[in-house]
Amino acid sequence: MRKISMMIAVVLAFSLILVACGKGNGGNNTPPSTSPSSTPSDTNSTPPAEDDITQKKVSISIYYPTPDRVEDRALEDDKIKRFNEVFPNVEIIKSDWQYNPNEIGIKMGANEAPTLFNTYASEGKFLAEKGWAADITDLFNAYEYKDQMNPLLQDLFTLNGKVFGIAQRGYPTGVTVNKKMLDDKNVPIPAFDWTWDDMLNAAKAVAEPSAGISGIAPMGKENASGWNWTNFLFTAGGEILDVKDGKVTAAFNSEAGLKALEYYNKLKWEANAIPEDWALDWVNAVGAFAQGRTAMVIAGPDGPVDQALNQGGMSPDDILVYPIPAYQKGGKHYGVLGGDFLVINPNASKDEQAIAFYYATFDYFSDKGLESLERNIQERQAQNKFYAPAVFQYFKPDAEYGAKVTALFNKYDNVYQYGEETLRLIDGKAESPYNTQDYYAAMTNVVQEVFSKKGVDMKAELDNTAKFVQEKFYDAIQP
């Protein structure tokens, strides 16, 4: 478990940033050579010509945002342009592949994975153990800003002292609420320190099933469904698994797990508060929120906020970001801690890996990166669009760089600001390091059973699923 509430007060001072922020010297210093002993700031020694990657033709393929993320693509295009101005010897190839745990093995086996690809917070151990993430410990240790990286995020990809990924941005899962929908139905706005009952009552009151309007749209499809449900497992006091005496044991079929599943059952069968077509993945659930077809959605906050503002045409005043509700008054508001990370392909050459690392961190702690972000915010403003920062960023909350970020965001009224009370209450808990996506997939089957059939034996469903996960995955683990 990673408790983050103590860090929130500091995070408040630093509204957060997407990956486009970066390196203090604007990315114009000497890149890391292929020798681990050379650091990016070591300008007093010049590596031999045969080891100097600035003198070699190198091609790398990179993660490129999906077509719907127009503004993010603009940021990446600007970064590529500026990188090539400094390193014209490097060819940057845009990859349209989006990380999928069910595809990564095939991509690696066929040598088709990008040199630098994005992944989820849960995948560090999985990718490292499979040999699908390069060990970048030497590159990271040579990085002049390594001590300023946010350990809350960066440590998720640091295993047994070795580094396998680069933090970009992060979040504790929360609940985004359409305030206008509640106001239009004269539904009282819940306190931010809310409970399960507060959420259920608000969702029930605002729902209008005959008009296709739901009070809340918990994801009911793909691994996202198990991921959404786990937030309630955590707030009820449960755990995904236990590790004791060298054995990993499924623990989600606990009393807390049963409470969380019973709560989902109430949302569906007692409150009639979820969509009739509840089999929604992340894209469709967040899309339903942006389109005003549901009053609440459970996700990392910046995604729903961005879509509601820029695609749904909603006003910032109509969007409230809440922590996950506590099980009961005074309880914890745990949200699954997630984030975006960049991983380097272990099949890439040493030169390609070095360039990929330098590209990934090119804008980090950078005034040039801030300038690029400011242009992006200004362009959005001219188009009546908004910028929704991530809740956590790649650098430490108390980093000096954060003051620059805060000052930039405070200049513009089209930057969404998270509420002070939300940031004070919101709390994060890390995902399991073992077979997380497999567990999510298994729990999705249980959620679908509860949503599709009335009167399901929920305890039996949890026990059977825990037995399956235990025998299929956990029994083979040696921590």
Automatic annotation (TrEMBL):
It holds the Pfam family SBP_bac_1. Transmembrane segments: none annotated. It comes from the Bacteria. InterPro entries: Bact_solute-bd_prot1 (IPR050490), SBP (IPR006059). Residues 28-48 have a biased composition (Low complexity). Keywords: Signal. Residues 27-52 are annotated as: Disordered. The keyword Signal applies. SUPFAM superfamilies: Periplasmic binding protein-like II. Residues 1-20 form the signal peptide. PANTHER family: ARABINOSE-BINDING PROTEIN-RELATED, SUGAR-BINDING LIPOPROTEIN. This is Extracellular solute-binding protein. It comes from Paenibacillus paeoniae. The lineage of its organism: Bacteria, Bacillati, Bacillota, Bacilli, Bacillales.
